């Protein structure tokens, strides 16, 4: 089997070249992306390379996506299987969830951020699952001494995600959030995590799970915004054999598979009122009724939900059930956006550089002072997800291990929506002495010039009529360089 690269490999199977190209552009910074236009080509790729995740379109010439993924499950069971299709195919997808072992169903038109997040999670799940299986096998077949060592490794694997993994600076606004989360983790209360997309809500949810008495149980994730109600019900609550065309055997839902553990319901604010009724009953009664079933199945799970929506406002608008809101919001935690915790940017950025450079096979990469200053001056509307993508781009484009500001996109270099927002947030000073007002204006001009020249001090100094030493002195004076 050939090695493609150190990055996890994703195989995109789609007969439309434009769809292949769109998915490649979305994924190629984080993964090695292979493509195939039909099942025969995909088989050749799977035989040649070690594929972590396969993305397969449902409608293709010959075999459907589900039919092909059934074959993949039999021949390459370690590969995580994701199918992409439209609402009209939902019944076929539901029927194939169990037979094909489909990890996730992504609706068209897919959203790049959601596709990338889903594939990342799938790849991580594959790594963790293989490690857990390996350790479990060692635990059952080794000598007493080795069993003790393996048990320690297994416990360490289960605690991969904890509060210490949530990177932040000393005195960060996240300290209070993590402190409260750690206190409530030990109690079997439902938790609602609020915050913008990309702030790390799932990471906090995982930390809560692994700090709880349920740590040895499963932690399962479902994005409620990604799939239609019919499929969501089957995925969460399961279905019975014969409940619809193609349901050849019983399929346990995520609530049953997570029995004794935690279910993380992401983007719960996007669910329909009809689904909310079913979910409320499950949470109240502690039992699920599979689609097509007449008997209920008891389940013992903890629910952690998350949303970027203002659920209280949606309750007032009649878009979210008030009784369900109070059921899931036993404890509410809000993860602040990155722009409100600027001190966290540096430690998060340095950690991301270490992780991304290792993934890309360029260990040792680090940020220059100018690059860090540039990152610190950007508002990051996409939060940590956007920061990670920008760092991956910079690591890939940098010719040396030292990443300079020039490697960042123009959006970040120029402050983008950020520059006009920064200008609005820092208008010309209307108070203070003449010297203080002139200093404020000078600092604004220096920053704007440096951003425009991508933090190239030689060009900025030349435009401003300063020596390079003089420019550096002013930068230090106004705190424009770390």
Automatic annotation (TrEMBL):
Record PTM 4-aspartylphosphate, positions in chain: 57
GO biological process: phosphorelay signal transduction system; regulation of DNA-templated transcription
Domain Response regulatory: residue ranges: 9-123
Pfam families: AAA_lid_14, HTH_8, Response_reg, Sigma54_activat
Keywords of the record: ATP-binding, DNA-binding, Nucleotide-binding, Phosphoprotein, Transcription, Transcription regulation
InterPro entries: AAA+_ATPase, AAA_lid_NorR, CheY-like_superfamily, Homeodomain-like_sf, HTH_Fis, P-loop_NTPase, Sig_transdc_resp-reg_receiver, Sigma_54_int
Residue stretches in coiled coil: none
Residue ranges of domain Sigma-54 factor interaction in the record: 174-396
Domain of life: Bacteria
GO MF term set: ATP binding; sequence-specific DNA binding
Name this protein carries in UniProt: Two component, sigma54 specific, transcriptional regulator, Fis family
């Amino acid at each position: 089997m050939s090695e493609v690269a150190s990055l996890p490999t994703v195989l995109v199977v789609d007969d439309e070249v434009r769809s292949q190209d769109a998915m490649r552009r979305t994924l190629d910074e984080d993964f090695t992306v292979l493509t195939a236009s039909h099942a025969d080509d995909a088989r050749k790729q799977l035989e040649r390379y070690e594929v972590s995740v396969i993305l397969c379109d449902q409608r293709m010439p010959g075999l459907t996506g589900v039919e092909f993924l059934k074959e993949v499950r039999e021949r390459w069971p370690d590969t995580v299987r994701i199918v992409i299709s439209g609402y009209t195919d939902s019944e076929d997808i539901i029927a194939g969830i169990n037979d094909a072992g489909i990890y996730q169903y992504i609706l068209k038109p897919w959203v790049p951020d959601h596709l990338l997040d889903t594939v990342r999670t799938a790849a991580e799940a594959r790594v963790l699952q293989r490690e857990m299986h390996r350790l479990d096998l060692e635990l059952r077949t080794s000598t007493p001494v080795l069993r003790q060592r393996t048990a320690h490794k297994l416990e360490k694997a289960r605690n991969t995600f904890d509060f210490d993994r949530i990177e932040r600076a000393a005195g960060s606004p996240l300290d209070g959030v993590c402190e409260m989360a750690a206190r409530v983790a030990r109690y079997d209360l439902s938790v609602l995590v609020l915050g913008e997309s990309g702030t790390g809500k799932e990471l906090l949810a995982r930390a809560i799970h692994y700090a709880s008495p349920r740590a040895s149980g499963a932690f399962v994730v479902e994005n409620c915004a990604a799939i239609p109600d019919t499929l969501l019900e089957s995925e969460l609550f399961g279905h019975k054999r014969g409940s619809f065309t193609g349901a050849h055997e019983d399929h346990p839902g995520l609530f049953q598979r997570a029995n004794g553990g935690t279910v993380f319901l992401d983007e719960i604010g996007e669910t329909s009122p009809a689904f909310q009724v079913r979910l409320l009953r499950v949470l109240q009664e502690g039992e699920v009724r599979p689609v097509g079933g007449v008997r209920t199945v008891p389940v013992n799970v903890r629910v952690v939900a998350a949303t970027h929506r203002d659920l209280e406002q949606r309750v007032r608008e009649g878009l979210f059930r008030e009784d369900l809101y109070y059921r899931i919001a036993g404890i509410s935690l809000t993860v602040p956006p990155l722009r409100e915790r600027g001190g966290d940017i540096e430690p998060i950025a340095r950690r991301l550089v270490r992780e991304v450079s290792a993934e890309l096979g360029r260990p040792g990469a680090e940020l220059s002072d100018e690059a860090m200053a540039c990152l610190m001056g950007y508002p990051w509307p996409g939060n940590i997800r956007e920061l990670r993508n920008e760092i991956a781009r910079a690591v890939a484009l940098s010719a040396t291990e030292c990443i300079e500001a020039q490697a960042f996109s123009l959006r970040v270099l120029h402050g983008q929506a950020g520059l006009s927002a920064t200008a609005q947030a820092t208008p010309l000073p209307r108070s203070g002495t003449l010297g203080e007002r002139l200093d404020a204006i000078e600092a604004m001009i220096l920053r704007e010039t440096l951003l425009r020249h991508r933090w190239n001090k030689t060009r900025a100094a030349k435009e401003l009529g300063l020596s390079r030493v003089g420019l550096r002195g002013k930068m230090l004076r106004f705190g424009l360089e770390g």
